[in-house]
Specification:
Helix content is about 40%, strand content about 15%. The chain is of the alpha/beta class and about 130 residues long. The chain has a domain at about 10-90: Rossmann fold. A four-stranded parallel sheet has the order 3-2-1-4, sandwiched between helices. Strand 1 (about 10), helix 1 (about 15-30) and strand 2 (about 30-35) form a beta-alpha-beta unit.
Length: about 130
Amino acid sequence: MINFAGKVALVTGAGQGIGAAIAITLAEYGADAVVNDRSLSDSLLDVVRQIEALGRRALPIAADVADYEQVRDMIAQAVREMGRIDILVNNAGIIRRGGCSITRPRNGSGCCGSTCGVRITVPAKWCRS
């Protein structure tokens, strides 16, 4: 059996769907959770309630993971309030309807600020933090 007791997980994109399911499952296996989304939505706060109902600690943090300063601040808050981060689930993604220029991103963030941009460039930001 998997046992994450005493571990702290940070799950990005945890306000709904796969991210919410991952955060709740980690809590079922004993982990406390820092749950992140771009805003403190009702759905993110519902994930917090579900984790706390399992007897685990949960800390919701609103931050845009494509923004380095917000990532740095989120990590600092998570460590300050939870003591450390043992597990990182980089689940955040962006859905854009319509075309995207692969060779010349519109906003300079790479991949038009899309899911690939968040999943490729964000880990480097995490490492710097």
